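Work Package 4 report. The design task specified in the project plan requires that, given a folded chain encoded as structure tokens, an amino acid be chosen for each position. We show below one input record used in the internal validation round.
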């Protein structure tokens, strides 16, 4: 199994570890399952990360809209 660094991709889609890494990125994820909050940030950002969290949420929602 490949060495994975996280459970979501750059668009917040939750990765399916049972799929091979040779698959297309969208096919390696659970369909319709996204994470759009601070839990996708791997480390502490600083005093007030609200704007960063909001920007990540907007990025994920754009990916959801594109998928629909």
């Amino acid at each position: 199994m490949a060495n994975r660094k996280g459970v979501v991709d750059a668009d917040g889609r939750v990765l399916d570890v049972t799929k091979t890494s040779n698959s297309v990125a969208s096919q390696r994820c659970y369909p319709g399952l996204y994470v759009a909050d601070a839990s996708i940030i791997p480390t502490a950002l600083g005093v007030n990360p609200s704007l960063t969290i909001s920007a990540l949420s907007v990025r994920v929602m754009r990916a959801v809209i594109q998928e629909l």
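The mean pLDDT is 84. Validation will be extended to a larger panel in the next phase.
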